[in-house]
Write a structure and sequence with these properties.
single chain, 300 residues, alpha/beta, TIM Barrel, 12 helices, 12% strand
């Protein structure tokens, strides 16, 4: 396998379209991914938070990756969200990604048990790496404690980096605390630190961060690309702040899907996997009105 490029630049945490049956809609996913790549994103991350990853089984996720690759989407433009509470399920997803030519895997810490120590998390990630036993793996830890309730600390990152150089490749920090992001960079300056917080992207690039893996790129890849430089213009920063302020008043994934539904005129896009619920029609109407008033929907 050719040495994979590190995750850097603008990566879209893609939404996952669902058919009327509730199954993953492989055809619509391929169209969406190809459109985003055509509009300039550096790559796509499948089955993260925005992609409702924890709501899908191992077999659903592997089948979706197989179907996407079969449409001609280059494996080099994909990374795979592979975090599950059960370590064997995570290992199965990572092995499948590697066998499919997608060595870059974004892996949540095990998110059911609370109050776990860094020693316990080190043992979990260490066991995963050694069970997969493939030096081609490029593992990105996923810090999103507001949902997982399990943090990726700078000390844990440094310890894993020392123990598994090359294999441990970086972190997606979606915690929203830029002080924590800076501590991750200081703890492991050789690794790729990316943000999931759209508003923090220019600041991250200014201090040597790698880029973003974000949900807003599903809607506004051109706007997000404009934030990739530390000197991002004021207008771009103002627009993304407006988007984040508006979207924060709605459930994130149903809201994003509702906007995609409106933009492409395809009602199938509003579907989400339970326990999430589609955005109610009055809320969808209000959301679209707010985005139009902020001048954001002209991006597409």
């Amino acid at each position: 396998m050719i040495e994979p490029a590190p995750l850097a630049g603008l990566w879209c945490a893609t939404l996952t379209p669902l058919a009327a049956s509730g199954a993953i809609d492989h055809d619509r996913l391929a169209v969406h991914v190809q459109d985003l790549i055509g509009r300039g994103v550096d790559g796509i991350v499948l089955f993260g938070t925005t992609g409702e990853g924890p709501s899908f089984s191992v077999s659903e996720r592997t089948a979706a990756l197989d179907a996407l690759l079969a449409t001609g989407v280059p494996a080099a433009r994909l990374a795979v969200g592979a975090g599950c509470p059960a370590l064997p399920d995570t290992a199965a997803l990572v092995r499948h990604a590697l066998a499919s030519g997608c060595p870059r895997c974004l892996v949540l810490p095990p998110y059911f048990w609370k109050g776990v120590t860094d020693d316990g998390l080190f043992a979990w990630y260490s066991t995963l790496i050694e069970a997969v036993c493939n030096p081609a793996l490029r593992l990105y830890l996923y810090h999103i404690p507001q949902l997982s309730a399990v943090a990726v600390s700078p000390a844990l990152l440094a310890r894993l980096d020392t123990a598994y150089p090359g294999v441990v490749a970086g972190v997606k920090d979606s915690g929203g605390d830029f002080t924590h992001t800076l501590a991750l960079i200081e703890a492991a300056p050789d690794l790729q630190i990316l943000t999931g917080d759209e508003q923090q992207l220019p600041d991250l690039m200014r201090v040597g961060g790698a880029g973003a893996i974000c949900g807003a790129a599903n809607l506004f890849p051109e706007l997000m690309a404009a934030l990739l430089t530390s000197g991002a213009d004021v207008a771009a920063r103002t627009r993304i702040r407006a988007f984040c302020r508006i979207i924060a008043t709605y459930p994130f994934v149903p809201a994003l899907k509702s906007v995609v539904e409106s933009l492409c005129g395809d009602r199938v896009w509003r579907s989400v996997r339970p326990p999430l619920s589609p955005l109610p029609e009055p809320d969808a109407t209000a959301l679209l009105a707010e985005l139009r008033s902020a001048g954001l929907l002209g991006e597409r």
